[in-house]
Design a protein that fits this description.
Strands 10-9-8-11-12 form a 5-stranded antiparallel beta sheet. It has a 4-stranded antiparallel beta sheet with strand order 4-7-5-6, with helices on one face. Strands 2-1-3 form a 3-stranded parallel beta sheet, with helices on both faces. The protein contains 11 helices and 12 strands. Helix content is 36%, strand content 23%. It is of the alpha+beta class and 306 residues long. The two termini are 25 Å apart. It folds into 3 domains: 81 residues, 3-Layer(aba) Sandwich (Rossmann fold), CATH 3.40.50; 136 residues, D-amino Acid Aminotransferase, Chain A, domain 1 (2-Layer Sandwich); 65 residues, Dna Ligase, domain 1 (2-Layer Sandwich), CATH 3.30.1490.
Length: 306
């Protein structure tokens, strides 16, 4: 008998729309292979649905907070149901940009300099810009600590910094990070295997939410990445090192900037998208792994105690 797969989708994060697209694509592929599937929102009835449907595996298609941060993983562990992607601790670490950065630094993985800014501390605006000039230098990137898909991310120079800062005032704390120019290179890891890399050339200012998910943004996807083999092997090894340092499982995608022959790791994503514009399926396809083969690998890799 084919496995019963419960696909978790939607959720409460700002990446809800992308999660639903991922779930739709995964569901379509699994139905073609005669799996018994059900798409489910992680609402108040989730425990009841899990116990009634009795899935063999939960395919976690959630993105962002509550789905990618260890919360839903804790629930699935308590119900002793196999699930895909990273476990409780790795998920919680990876989504927290500060904790993951500290691990990168400890493991000697190059990452942009940063400091934390709290909206509660009421630092004077001129003092904050002075601190940035002294410690980082403009331009800088400002972003929340625990959002994905470049949600609420702004590249700021000194003149537009305060206006952009105010846009993030609904967050208690944010990260102010040195902006690294250069090429956008992303690496996919599958299990403990270096799956491949892709370069992105956005037509927009940077690879933001629109550039990622709107086909009209016309972001150029380049494979193979046009760098020499030594550098390509280096960036893929750094991605694998980061994946292992955090304790990730299943598939991850690491985002890099390549500048002056150095790779700067921006972040690691523990639940990469599976939409028609998503990068992990594209990298897999380039390496002769079909979409359904990728999904089935994830299902076969699913476990408890991740």
């Amino acid at each position: 008998m084919k496995k019963k797969i419960l696909i978790l989708a939607g959720g409460f994060s700002k990446e809800r729309e992308i999660s639903l697209k991922t779930a739709k694509a995964v569901n379509k592929a699994l139905i073609k292979k005669k799996y018994l599937t059900k798409i489910c929102e992680p609402n108040g009835n989730l425990i009841k649905i899990l116990r009634n449907f009795k899935p063999n595996v939960v395919f976690n298609a959630l993105h962002g907070r509550y789905g990618e941060d260890g919360y839903i993983q804790t629930l699935l562990e308590s119900e002793k149901i196999k699930y895909t992607h990273s476990g409780v601790l790795a998920s919680a670490i990876a989504i927290d940009k500060e904790i993951s950065k500290k691990i990168f630094i400890k493991k000697k993985i190059l990452t942009p300099k940063y400091f934390k800014y709290s909206f509660k501390k009421k630092i004077k605006k001129n003092e904050l810009t002075q601190k940035i000039n002294k410690e980082l230098g403009f331009p800088v990137v400002i972003k929340p600590f625990n959002e994905g898909s470049s949600v609420a991310v702004y590249i700021c120079n000194q003149s537009n910094f305060i206006n952009n800062l105010l846009k993030l005032s609904s967050y208690r704390e944010i990260m102010i990070e040195k902006y690294i120019p250069g090429r956008e290179i992303q690496v996919a890891i599958l299990g403990n295997k270096k799956l491949g890399a892709i370069e992105l050339k956005p037509k927009r200012k940077f690879y933001d939410y629109e550039a990622k998910y709107n086909i009209n943004a016309k972001t150029e996807h380049i494979m193979p990445v046009k760098i020499n083999k030594k550098y390509l092997n280096r960036v893929m090894q750094i991605a694998l090192n980061a994946h292992q340092a955090i304790g990730c499982r299943g598939s991850t995608r690491s985002d890099f900037k390549f500048y002056k022959n150095k790779f700067y790791l921006l972040e690691i994503n523990t639940q990469p998208g599976m939409t028609s514009l998503s990068l992990v399926p594209e990298i897999a396809k380039y390496n002769q792994i079909t979409f359904i083969q990728l999904i089935e690998w994830m299902i076969n890799d699913a476990s408890i105690n991740r």
